[in-house]
Amino acid sequence: MALVSVSDDLAKKSFTSVENKFITKYLPVLEPIAVKVYLFSLYVYQNALSSYTLEDLAKHLSITEDEAKNYFEYLEEFELVSVLSLAPFEVKILDADNVYGTPKKFKPEKYADFTKTVQNIIKGRMISPNEFREYFLLLEEYGFEQDALIMIITYCANLKGDNIRFQYIKKVAKSFADDGVTTAKKVDEKLSAYTSSTPALIKIFASAGINRQPDFEDDKLYKKWTAELGFEDDAIAAASKQFKAKTAEKLDAALTELYKNKKFDIKEICDYCKNKNSVFNATLDIARALGVYMQNTAPYVENYVNVWYDYGYSFECMKTVAMYCFKHNMKSFEDMHEFINKLYNDGIVTDTGVNEYIGKLNAQDGFIKNILNLCGLTRKVIAWDRESLKRWKSWDFSDEMILEAAKLSAGKSNPTAYMNGILSTWKSEGTFTPDKIQSLSVKAATTDTTISRAEIERHYHNLRHAAEDAAEKALNRALSDDIYGKIYRDLNELSIQLAFAELRNPNAADELTKRIGGLEIQGDKRLKELGIDKTNFTPRYSCKICNDTGYDQNGKPCTCMKKFIASLK
């Protein structure tokens, strides 16, 4: 029969869980009240009694608050808890560390001289038997020479004061042991290396406003900053001021950021920090100009504004472009990025160049607005109007000739399409000056008196719409599948990342290209499973020459238009 069993009623009740290692290893050696404090702390945590205070715990266990604090510090020496704060008093319960079984027993006479020496070093408090037991464990389990461990304790006491807690000493000792430094000779060499970097760290800490002495962890960071990242002491001090890093951890994060952005010189660091604030403010201004709400500015800074700045655009220039984009219905960072890429590819980077270019675009829109008014239209200028004007200009028509075509198109059912027909006819006939314009009727626009321009435009509009609608439906059918829909979105996202990477990080671009290739294979496989032909995503125009516009690339009536007109005769 089992040593212990429980009733059915007890089995149904709630419980507080305790680690088995606590029972097998710590329970036999801990002071009884310390066990009570530990178990009651587990009960408070596991039952979510968040409002419980140290006063409540002490009252429940019939001890004073000071006694409760002392028992928590006693448990901390066993690494069963960690005291996080003294005011208000807060502790964290740790896992029962190390091995199964009771703590090792040591012969006091073996370490008599060692214990006297350690107590003389740590004069601010009496060292408890449990703390000495932990020192003995360091000596025997980690292989420290007694003199080596005494040197470490001395170093820690000199650094932190003679009231130093054991947890810090143990942390330093374990760090030495991890590096294989357990003999007095090796410890002396390592401490000498720490000492050599201390003056530099003291100077850096003073510059950063870090009000403490550097320790062994700071020395590791210093070696990282200088040997691994390549920063000089003056640059580290400058970084601490610019980033207002009041802790070694924050200074480490600042230097890591500077390293990623390849800023090592003091001037580079100062300029980077100055621009960093400017970039943040500029991003907010651009977002306001575009009418974009940003929950987090970081992605917009990294993926857009920093990229534009690296192109050579000033922040003021970016705001000018943002206002232009908003007025022309490009109301996102992505739309603005596309516009800036066009400027950049055309070599338009300076403030003067951008202002002149935008001025020309505004003047162009004003001219298009004049065309629309002559046609009898009151709507806003759209992208199609700009593309049409660009095409007409490429046919070598002057503004005067384009306006003449607009006058002739007034009152027609589709004035801009009618203009396209008139100008196409003039081009084919070599009519490029007003004095050569004959009395044009529908014949001039369509080459046949019995067929209206509207009928031809309606025919080609229907052809284009049918082809594009079929392509859109095919894509929407594929996107309705969850698997392919995710692949499609991921491909779009990676394509955007690739565009940035090709400019800033060729190695990352190669990796993204591989990932895109893999996703495309997965997408093609899924489409095959769905029975969808990927080529259907592209409109299948009935005429490959003009793509169902009625005009070839030279602006002349396509052969398909002539056939259509002939079919109507």
Description:
By secondary structure, this protein is mainly α. The chain contains 26 helices and 2 strands. A two-stranded antiparallel ribbon has the order 1-2. Helix 4 packs across helix 5 (65-77), helix 12 (233-243) packs across helix 13 (248-260) and helix 14 crosses helix 15. The termini are far apart. Residues 98-102 and 439-450 have low confidence and may be disordered.
Produce the secondary structure layout.
Elements: H1 8-11, H2 20-26, H3 32-46, H4 54-61, H5 65-77, E1 81-86, E2 89-93, H6 112-121, H7 129-141, H8 146-160, H9 166-178, H10 184-208, H11 216-228, H12 233-243, H13 248-260, H14 266-290, H15 298-311, H16 315-327, H17 333-345, H18 351-375, H19 383-394, H20 399-409, H21 415-429, H22 442-446, H23 453-479, H24 482-504, H25 506-530, H26 559-568
Antiparallel strand pairs: 1-2
Helix pairs in contact: 3-5, 4-5, 6-8, 7-9, 8-9, 8-10, 10-11, 10-12, 12-13, 12-14, 14-15, 14-16, 15-17, 16-18, 18-20, 20-21, 24-25
How much helical structure, as a percent, in the residues?
Answer: 55-70%
For the largest beta-sheet, the strand count, sense and barrel status come to: 2 strands, antiparallel
Which class do the helix and strand fractions yield?
Answer: mainly alpha
Count, helices = 26
From the alpha carbons, calculate the radius of gyration and give it in angstroms. Answer: 40 Å
* Strand-residue proportion: under 5%
Averaged pLDDT, please?
Answer: 82
Tell the overall outline: elongated
Distance N to C terminus: 109 Å
Low-pLDDT runs of 5+ residues are 98-102, 439-450
> Which strand order does the major sheet show?
1-2
- What is the H/E string? HHHHHEEHHHHHHHHHHHHHHHHHHHHH
Number of strands: 2
